[in-house]
Design a protein that fits this description.
heterodimer, A: 196 residues, mainly alpha, 9 helices, 67% helix, 0% strand, elongated, B: 157 residues, alpha+beta, five-stranded antiparallel beta sheet, extended
Chain lengths: 196, 157
């Protein structure tokens, strides 16, 4: 048995999470090193705020430290579980309660104000407007857009993280893309920033 | 009103992803998590003390589970046992050891055996399992020694 494999066995996510659950807090350090970037970027893309993303990242790993026994390794890998925790925390931080949006897919969200500074290069302006559009999405649309479109998680993972059906993820992603495309074009039409 | 073409939207999403590709939490967050870990190490959570006549129950259950798994593996037909290619094994980091790492290092050649196991068996092996679903069975792959001793478990999702 190569020593490298035995080291990897010892360092698997499930093994480290089990050690944390059994009262070995030091096992959290490698998990934090491994997953802090993914959790932080999810919260950053979702909230648009570096401060909220930092707070959520801290909350997620302190939660893992104190509630590691809640993670069931047989139900899936650790990273989607962490993103699910991050989703709950970022919803709370943003003042959005995920429960109230469960059945409001037919409600038309209000179009955001996408006015951007006149100064600045096109790329920066586009990013600022896209961030504003994402921030205006209802939380349940933002979840799937950030997870699937920006976070490159699979539909199945996003469904598990959001606690909804696979087809719901598909439809919400489609609706989120359509809303953003429409909002960007609406704004372009009304501010004269349209290209072509 | 005409929607921006998908390609243009994809370009903007790609630019947004690129803009945060290297984003990491600030050092203050790293320090806060390190402090939480240090605090937890200083004041470990109290575990319920098992009754005096049952203090050997879990070690015995663990030993029994490993023995049962080993018997199952030994009784499998040869075609059910898959030799784990060395390269793949070296790249696998999702197996969870169920014996001391030193035993795994001494194991020599290993095999991977697919198996459906009850959650109770996995719990007895010390793996993190939700007790509310203890009756379920789970698809796993077992890393076993040539003599059938089970070394590690991998969940098949």
């Amino acid at each position: 048995m190569p020593a490298e494999l035995s080291e990897r066995l010892q360092a698997s996510d499930a093994a480290l999470a089990a050690r944390v659950a059994c009262g070995d807090p030091s096992a959290l350090s490698p998990l934090y090193e491994r997953h802090r970037g993914g959790v932080y970027r999810f919260a950053l893309l979702w909230s648009g705020s570096a401060a909220i993303a930092a707070d959520v990242t801290q909350d997620v790993f302190v939660h893992l430290l104190t509630r590691a026994e809640d993670y069931d390794a047989a139900r899936g890998p650790l990273k989607p579980w962490l993103l699910g925790i991050a989703r709950n925390f970022v919803h709370k931080r943003a003042g959005a309660d995920a429960r109230y949006v469960a059945n409001d897919d037919d409600v038309e969200p209000e179009a955001p104000d996408l006015a951007s500074p006149e100064a600045g290069i096109d790329a920066q302006r586009d990013l600022a407007r896209l961030r504003a559009a994402i921030a205006a999405l209802p939380p349940h649309y933002r979840d799937v857009l950030v997870l699937v479109e920006l976070g490159e998680r699979s539909y199945a993972e996003a469904a598990a993280i959001c606690g909804c059906e696979l087809n719901t993820v598909r439809s919400r992603l489609s609706r989120a893309r359509a809303l953003i495309a429409r909002w960007l074009d609406v704004e372009s039409d009304t501010t004269g920033l349209a290209r072509g | 009103m005409q929607n921006r073409p998908d390609a243009e939207l994809d370009r903007q999403f790609a630019a947004l992803k690129e803009s945060v590709a290297d984003a990491m939490p600030p050092e203050a967050t790293d320090r806060a998590v390190a402090t939480a870990i240090a605090r937890a190490q200083r004041s470990p959570r109290r575990k319920a003390r098992p009754p005096g006549d049952r203090w050997l129950a879990w070690p015995l259950a663990l030993a029994a589970s490993i023995a049962v798994l080993s018997l199952i593996v030994r009784s499998l037909p040869p075609e059910a046992v898959v030799a784990e290619p060395t390269a793949r094994a070296a790249g696998s980091d999702d197996f969870v050891p169920v014996v001391p790492i030193a035993d795994i290092e001494r194991a020599g050649d290993t095999l991977v055996v697919p198996a459906k196991l009850p959650r109770t068996t996995l719990a007895q092996l010390g793996l993190p399992i939700n007790p509310a679903r203890a009756a379920d069975t789970i698809d796993t792959e077992l890393l076993v020694r040539r003599d059938g001793a089970v070394l590690a478990v991998r969940f098949v999702y």
